Each structure stands twice: as C-alpha cells, then as structure tokens.
Amino acid sequence: MDRRSFIFALALGAATALGGAGTASADSTVHLRLLGTTDLHVNVLPYNYYSDKEDVTVGLARTAGLIAKARAESKNSLLLDNGDTIQGNPLGDFVARERGLKKGDVHPVYKAMNLLKYDATTVGNHEFNYGLDFLASAHSGLTFPVVAANVEIAGSDRTYLKPYEILTRQVTDEQGQVHSLKIGVIGFVTPQITTWDKSALADKVTTSDIVDAARKYVPELRSQGADIVVALCHSGLSADPRHGMEENAAWYLTEVPGIDAVVTGHQHKVFPGPDFVGLPEADSAKGTIHGVPVVMPGFWGSHLGVIDLTLTNGDGKWSVADSAVAVRPIYETRDKQRVALADSDPAIVEALSADHEATLAYVRQPVGETTAPINSYFALVQDDPSIQIVTNAQAWYVKRLLQGTEYESMPVLSAGAPFKAGGRGGPDYYTDIPAGKIAIRNTADLYLYPNTVRAVVMTGAQIREWLEASAGAFNRIDPNASGEQALLNPSFPSYNFDVIDGVSYRIDVSQPARYDGDGKLAAPEAHRIRDLSHGGKPIDDGRKFVVVTNNYRAGGGGKFPGLDGTNIVVEAPDENRTALVNYIFDQKTIDPASDGNWSLSPIGGAAEVTFLSSPKARDAIPPVSRIAYLGDGGNGFGKYRIDLTK
Length: 646
What we know:
The chain is of the alpha/beta class. It has two domains: 18-356, Purple Acid Phosphatase, chain A, domain 2 (4-Layer Sandwich), CATH 3.60.21.10; 366-597, 5'-Nucleotidase, C-terminal domain (5'-nucleotidase,  domain 2), CATH 3.90.780. The protein contains 16 helices and 38 strands. Strands 8, 9, 11, 12, 13, 14, 15 and 16 form an eight-stranded mixed β-sheet that branches. A hairpin with a 5-residue loop joins strand 8 (164-172) and strand 9. The chain is globular, with a radius of gyration of 27 Å. The N and C termini lie far apart (103 Å).
C-alpha cells in the first residue's frame, strides 16, 4: 500500500469509528428517553396556598428530583411539557391579576422550567384564561419553544403559535457513536378554548380539530426531515365515536400515521395505570394505544412521565423498534401518611422565594367575616354552605346587571358546584374555613377557577334536564340489596355536580342516571329529579328563567343538555371569584347557612349507603343528621353512612 492509500484508509477508519454526526450504520441502535409533565397549574413549590401549608403531593420543584434521576439513567433524553402551566392556584392569579408581568419579567412557573432546561412545550386550555396579551408576555420569558398546530389567527390560515419545532440533538448509540437526530415536536390543545374563553379570544383566534391538524402537519414535519415525531396533546383519552372537534382526542391521534409517541393530559389522570382500564386498543402494561407509546403523567407535578424509545436505523432512516412507558410519582402513601419520594430542587425554591412570599401576603388579605365555619365535606351528599355562598354572590351580582334590561322581570337562579370535594385531590382536598375573618385565599378556596360570570336563559324543562345531568354524580342504589353500596360515582368530576339555587328538588338515586358522563342520554325513561318546584309550586316547564353560571358551563363545558353558548344573555367581564369577593365586601359579615333547597330522596328498603370524605368531617356532623361516621375509608379518607331509608 502506498502512502496516499494508507492515509486514505486511516482517515476512513477514523471516520467510521467516530460515526460522524448524521452518519448511521445499518445496525445503529439509539435509546431515547422522553420525559413529560402536564397540567402543572402553577404548582411549582410543594405548597397549598388554600390551606396555607406545605404539601408533598404537588410541585415541579419535587418532580425536578425525578427528572434529574431519569436523566442520569439515560444517555439521551428530552424534557417536554404538555400545557396548563400558568393558571390554577393563587400564585398564578397573583401574577396575572395583581402584579402583572413587566417587560423582562419571567413568569414564576417558566423560571422553574427554564432552570430545568425543558426542550419544548405546548399550550393547555387554561393558558388562555388571562387573555392573549398576558400569554404573550408570559411566553416572552421562555428559553424553549412552545408549539400548537390547531390554534389559528382569526381570518387567516396561519397558526397563532408555531405548529411544530424540529429539535436537532446529538445522540449516542449503544456502540458509543454520535448521531444527529431530528426530533419533530408538534402541539395540540382542546379546540373548545374559543368557547370557554370566548370573551378573550373572539375575533382573535380560531381552532381546528386536533386529528385534522395532525394529518395536515405531521407529513409536513416528515418532509422537512424529522426522524421521529412526538405529539404534545393537551387533550384527554376517549374512544367515543368520532364526530370532529373532540375535547378528548388523544386516542384518535395515535391512529395518525407518522406519530411515534404522545404525551397527553387535560383529564388529570394517569396512563398507563388503572384510570383507563378497558380503554380499547390500549396496552396498559406496555403503555401503548394502537401500538403507539402514550403517557399521561397526572397533574400538579404529581408524576413524571417516561417514554423510552428504542430507535434503529435502516437505509438511512430511523424508526421506533420498541418502547416502554412508565409514570413515576413524587409521593406515596405509607401507614395512611403521604410521604415524599423526591426532595425539592433548592435552585427552584430559591428562584421562586420572592414570588412565594408575595403570594402569601396576597392571599392572607382579609375581605370580610363569616359567622360560622364553611366546609365542603358533605357538599356532594347534601345542600352545603360552601356552594350556597357562591350561588348567593352570583345572583347578587347578576341581578344588578339585569336592571333595566328585558330580562329584569325573569326569576334569577344560580348554579354552583363543589370544586374541592376530595376524590383525586385526596382526603385534604376540601374547603375548610373557620369562623371569623375571611381572606382572599379563602375566596379562592371557595371558587377554584378564574371563570367569568355568565347568565343563560333556560326553560323549566331545560333546568330539569340540567339537574338530571348533574345527578350523574351518584351511583344507582338498590334499596333491597344487602351490604354496602357506594353512593358517589368516582368517575364523575365534582365540578360537574351543579346545584341550582332558587328552585327546590330531590334526587332519587334508586333510578339509573338519565345521562352518562359524556352528556349522552343513556336512560330515556329514567328521572332522578323529583318534586322540582319554584316559589313553592311545581315548576312550569315552559317558563323562562335566568340562570347564573360561568363561561365554562355556559359555553358547553361538561356537555350538559341545553348549554352550548347560544342562550347566553349576560357575558360579564368579572370572574366569579371577583363577584364573590365583592359580595363579601358588600355584606361585610356573611351567614354561610345553606337553605336546604335540594336533598336525596328516601328510597325505602334497608340499603347501607356509604361515601368517603375527610376524617375531619366527623366533627362537622350536626347532632341530628342522616350522616354517621363509620371509620377508616382507606387512603387517608374516612367512611360515612347516609341513611336514605326514610
């Protein structure tokens, strides 16, 4: 071999050994780890601003410990977020409503995410609650891209945000060779944002169907050289028949060719896991739907989602040969106590210390007094003062707006729901306000979300159907069956259990639910709502009423019959919480007693009907009551009996 041939051979061997960026041999195998969070809702620190104490079950600062461990276990990883980040607790409200964001300010949740070096995020529906100007100010502090493919600028075919991003990353294969991998990240959000936040988004943005947007942009991503495509889908999992513009479309998204992995959320559940047992085409052991790896990592920082992809190269193209999916919790329950599984990241705690202290000062400001304690321990089983105060405030607020209008003479009803009623939030997730001073944090505790006030016109017949849908919160009880029967349907969100004040009624749980959880008429012959009356007389089905609610419900949120945004007559600029604060300011002292306008009907028989609530609720049972404490209910809850026999 001459000198020139020797040098050429040496150079070729060196290039082969190094596996230069962009060069992949046919047997190259790369393990890529995707880490995901979703529905953080400003829960950065492990602190509950409503109870004003530490909380080990929440907080990105704790999730950060899991992130660091998961990164250390893998040669190649990406950290992704699935939206609903800037709204959801008093820290978010303080920044958006009280302090604001000046030029150069970084939103507290994005401070933490920047420190953790996220690679990309999308928007959730709650990103739009404070309007587009605030959202733009918040996004200006990001050091990583935000993508959304199904939100368009009104009157154009251009997306409001970039539909996708191609991230070029250097990855190391199993032989130690380095390759240049192009990872396409595409985002989607529930298309209902334009209804739920109509006043903030009307004539500014429109939305398109998630699956249709994916079919449009995923081929474009591939044509631009993306080796793999990851979808960040702020939408839940449902296999209900597809009609288009689904709120929960992630199940169908996995059928779109070219998508290699999906991070989903919005439903505040966990996949893989027991939350989705029986979901068609889902493999909970492997964490796939239609063969595509999918993760839904809880909410409020409760879990870290982990998708491990095994990538192989053939003919110069990367493909997913195998996958594994897991969710890692930040806490577990031991001996009825919740124990942290990760320590808080000190850098994040330090970065948010000033924001935290300012929020504490904000939420501790007094606005009035209450003559008695207010709690939501029994809000799902009997008329409750924690809802009564909200419905009273809403009616007070809207009656003033109706003066001088064509609706002034109509009866005003008011709908409210228990936002904090245990369930997935755990045994401490209840409103519990002692008698005495009421602070801003207490009003936020009574009304959790930054919804805005709406009023709709409904007939008596429509109100009956509204209440029938709400009564889906209960399981059917057999009066003659022996043994315990659980009263509450665990799959029914408490925020969909609307109580309507201004009418009286009873709920017969021996009947099947008339509507299913998706708003479909499930039992046409069934009627749980009994003795519906107004002013002491049976309600006139044809009479019209003004019903005060919020933008979410009035716009169709929860899929209640008769509520689709077309019958709104009051579209107020104020939040329901603002109405509540102003009401307390106006009244100065409030009496939180409920008026008992609804109850569960006696069903006879000898059924032992039970439900779970906080163990603290035993001290809130009045001397004469249908409710009795039975003992430990598991997972930190107490078990209670409610007597429906007579």
